[in-house]
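Hello Y.,

Per our agreement to keep a running log of every chain we model this quarter, I'm adding this entry. I've kept the format consistent with earlier entries: sequence first, then predicted structure.
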Amino acid sequence: MTTYSQDYSPLIDSSVHVDVTAVKHDSERTTFVYFAFVNNGTEVKPLFGTDHNVISVPNYRANDRTYVLSVALDAITIREGDTDSDWFDHYTENELAWSKSWLCEALRGEY
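Predicted structure for the entry above:
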């Protein structure tokens, strides 16, 4: 199993930590399930972490940690207006709130 993880909070100069993890999901294809957590110092809240959060990367990039995490980061920072509205149909309330938050906007602008 391949796992990549990164705390992106230093990029946005925030006391709220945003951690993104991508775990190789399928050995036949190069897909990763991505997870994101926000830690505000008192509690860790999962943002994304269900099986529908899957990214695909080319086989030749599967061992490139930076690339895999950047694709996962693209996925968690997508906002309304960036894509078709049905993209958000499966989002939970927390995921929708995140996509509208200043942290999401700041993170999208900084990487």
